[in-house]
Sequence to fold (764 residues):
Amino acid sequence: MRKLLIGTVLLALGAGSPAYANLNVFACEPEWAALATEIGGNKVSVYAATTGVQDPHQIQARPGLIARARNADISVCTGAELEIGWLPAILAQTSNQKIRPGAPGSFEASNFVNLLEVPARLDRAEGDIHAQGNPHIQTDPNNILKVAKPMADRFAQLDPANAATYAMRLADFTTRWQAALAKWQAQAAPLKGVPIAVGHLSWRYMEDWLGLKRIVALEPKPGVPPSSGYLAQVVDTLQKNPAKMVIRSAYEDDRPSLFIADRVHLKAVVMPFTVGGTPEAKDLFGLYDDTINRLLAAAKG
Amino acid sequence: MFRVPEPVKIPIWSLAGIGMFCAATPAMAAPADPLATIRDEISKLRQDYEMKIKDLEDRLQKAEADAEAAKASAAAAQEAQKTAAAAPPPPPAAPIPEPPPQQRAPTSLNAFNPGIAAVLNGFFVAASHDPSASSIPGFALGDSAQGLPRGFSLGESEVNVTANIDPFTLGWLNLSFGSDNSVSVEEAYIQTTSLGSGLTLRAGRFFSGIAYLNERHAHDWSFSDASLPYRVFLNSQYGDDGIQARWLAPTNIFLELGVELFRGDSFPAGGAANKGIGTVTAFAHAGADINDSSSWLAGLSYLRTRSDKRGDSAGDIFSGTDDIGIATLVYKWAPDGNPTRRNLILSGEYFYGHENGFFNGIPVDYNHMGWYAQAVYQFMPRWSVGLRYAQLRTDDLGPALAGTTLDDLGRIPRAVSGLLEFDTSEFGRFRLQYSHDDSDVRPLDQVLLQYTVIYGPHPAHRY
Fold:
C-alpha cells in the first residue's frame, strides 16, 4: 500500500514537471488566452479556464482549474469583479504566490481600459452589479489593443529572457490589428445608429464602438432573469421604439430573446461575445469579423 | 478620454510671504545709518522675487496652453480617425499615444477592514415524532448527531470574519449562534498564504479536511441535514483544535494531500487523550475535468483517534481507539460548463470504522460501516430536485453488550430523503425536504422547510 502511494506521488510529480514553455499562463477568458498566444507565441503555454460558450460570471471552482492555477506563472483575467464568483475560491486553494491579487503575475485587463457604467449605488438589491463598472471590455476591439501592450510588458517583466520576442510579436500584432480595425470600421459603417435590444448588459463597449443604439435590455437588473411582467414591458417599449434585432451571447438563455423576437418580429442574433463563442470566431480576428458579419446580416433585413 | 498631467500649482502667496518676511527682518535689525544700502538691497530682493514669480507664472501659462493643444490634437486625431473610417481602408496610421487610464487597486474583500459575512438559517419541521430525541440502535452518537426539534426553529446563524493578517497569513473566525442563544466558536484559525510550492499550513480550530462534506459548512450542503454516516461516524461534522498541512501537487490533474493533528476533544474523539493530541488524520483528494461539461473528484481519508472516557448522547463511557476510513466520489455535470441553467451533482461516500477499547467497562472490538449516495439535479435556472439514500451496518457484538447502545437489535438503519429547492439568487435559497428515516426502532417521517441566506463578502464555495 505504502509503495503504491509513493509510486502514485512520484508519477504525479513526473507528470507535473515544468512544461517546455517559459511562462505558464492561466487565462480566465478565451479572449485573453487568444491575446496571450498572439503576444507570447511559443514562449508561453496558455491554459484557457473557460470556453467561448461559458458564462464567465458563473464557473464552478473545479479541481482541474485549481490544478492549473497552482502551476501558473501569470493569470490573465478581465478583473473588475467579473470572476469574483469563482477565481478567489481557486486562488485560496492553490496558495500560488505568483498570481495572488496584486502580484506581478496577476494581470487584470480591465485595469488598462476606462470602464463604463460604474454603478452609482452599490447594493445587491440592484442585481449582479460590478462595483468597478461594466467588465465586458472585449466587445470593443480597440480595448484589445489597449490591453496588448501592458500584457507584453508584463510578460517581459516576468520573463526578461524573451522580452525581445514579446516586443516583436506585440509590434507585429499591433500592425495587423490596426489594419483590421480600419477594415472593421469601414465594414461596420451601415451599423451606425441601428437600434438593438440586448440580453445581458454585456455590449456597452461594442455599442459605443459601432454606434449601435440600445433600446432596451431583456434583464430588469444585471444577472436577474426577466419575469413575464418585465418581458411585457420590453414588448411595449419595442413596439413604441422598434429595434432591428435582439442580440445575446452563446451562453445566455435563448428563451427571453426568442420570445421577444417572436412577439415584436425582430431578429434574434447569437453573437460570438468571445473567441470560440461561434464556430466562425476561431481567433481574435475571427471574433470581430463574425461580430460584424452577424450584425450586418441582421441589420439588412 | 485624454488625461493631461495637471499643471503644477505654484503657491504664490507663500513666496510673497517669504519675500515680505525677508524684507522686514533686515530693516528692523539694521542700524539707521546705512539705510540707503538696505533699501537698495530690499528693492533688489523684491525685483529678484518678482522675476521668479513672473517666470513661474509664464511656465504655468505654457503648461496650460500645452494641455489645450494636446486636447485639441486628440480631438483632431479622433476626427481624423472617424473620417478615415468612412473612407476605404487607409494605410495603418501610427498609434495615437494615449496615457494609460488610472490603475485601480486590485479588489480586496473590503480594503483594510476584514470581510464580514453573515449566514442566516431558519427551519420549520413537521415530524411523526421528535427528531431531536432519536437514537440509532447499534451506534453511539455525539451531541450533534440528532435531528432538529419540531416546529419553528432558528438554525445556526453564522458570522464569518476574515482578512489577510500580513503578507504571510490570513485569519478566519466563524462564530455560530445556536437557536438556544448559545454562541460557539465554530472555526477560528490562521493559515499561511505565501509558503509557495503548493504548501499551506493551518492552526487553530477548524473542520477537518477529511471526506467531502466535512470541511464545508452546513449551509453549503445540498441537503438540510447530515446523512446517516456523517451523523454516526463524525457527529455530523468533525471539527477540533489542531494543526493542518496540505500540499497541492504541481500536476495538471488536481492532487491534494493533507495531514492533521487534533486535540481529540470532540466526537468521535473524547477526553483529549494522548496528552492532548488525541486525533490524527490523513487525506488525499484527486480530481479533473472529463470534458467541458463534466468533472470528478475522488478522495480517500483516514482518521485515527484515541478516546479517554468519551461520553455519548445516551450517557455511555468509551475509552479506546477508533479508526475510520472514508472513500469519496463526486461527479458534476453542467452542459458546456454552465451550471446556472442545468446541472447535476452525483456524490457518494463509504465509511468504514473499527472501534477497540472498553465500552462502559466491557471490552469491545468491532467494525461498523455506512454509506450514502445522492443526486441533485438543477433542472432549470433556480430550481433543483434531489434524492439521497443512506444506510448503516454494525457487527453483532454478542450477548455481553445486548441491550446497550451498541446492540443493533438486528436492524439495518437506513434513510431516504428528497428535496425541492428554489434559489432567489446565489445568495438566497428556500428548500423543502422530506425524509423517511428508518434508523430508530420507530421510523421517523419528517418534512423540513428551510431558508438560507448569505450576505456580505462571503467567499465563493468550494467544488
Remarks:
- Chain A touches chain B through 68 residues (CB under 8 Å).
- The two ends of chain A are 69 Å apart (CA to CA).
- The mean pLDDT of chain A is 90.
- Residues 63 and 187 of chain A are 44 Å apart (CA to CA).
